[in-house]
Amino acid sequence: MARTTITDEIIDKCRELSSKGFSNTLISKSLNISVTTLSNNKKIVKAIQEGKQELAELITQSILENLNETQDRLFIAKRLNLFNPQINIKRAIDAKGALENLSQAIKQYADGEINESQLRTIEAVTNSFIKGFEVTELEKRIERLEDGLK
């Protein structure tokens, strides 16, 4: 795909499509923008999150309006994860990115936006990612040393 100039119109369209239930892949195809651009542009990420939030609120309201029993409402609310907030992390491609995600999660925990269980999950995933990254880097260094000895 050709490089796309991100305009307010594109950002608004991303929000609109997201609010209609389009996935990032479908938004990408609809607007002829790469998924990477959607993931890396902060304004687009925010617009997509806002659109998803609008859709979630609309669907939630519709479901709750059609339920009679309080117990049914609580069950649906739990199934929709209304009590679990959105965690704002990105896909890490290196150790620095993984640590930035962990830092973001710690900030969200300190601000009361996520609970301790969610923080611990992110911490465990981050630690596993970093260990795997370190092992890979170590193997590359050993290969370069061995190649230098040959």
Structure, explained:
The protein has 7 helices and no strands. It has about 150 residues and is an all-alpha fold. It folds into 2 domains: about 1-85, no CATH class; about 90-150, no CATH class. The longest helix has about 35 residues, at about 115-150.
Topology (SSEs and partners):
Elements: H1 8-19, H2 24-31, H3 35-40, H4 42-65, H5 70-79, H6 95-110, H7 116-149
Helix pairs in contact: 1-4, 6-7
What's the number of domains? 2
Helix content: over 70%
Q: How many extended strands? A: 0
Shape: flat
- Average of per-residue pLDDT values: 83
Order of helices and strands: HHHHHHH
What is the alpha-carbon Rg in Å? 21 Å
Distance between the termini: 43 Å
Specify the biggest β-sheet. none
Could you name the ranges where pLDDT drops below 50 across 5 or more consecutive residues? none
* Number of continuous helical runs: 7
The percent range for strand residues is under 5%
Class computed from helices, strands and strand pairing: mainly alpha
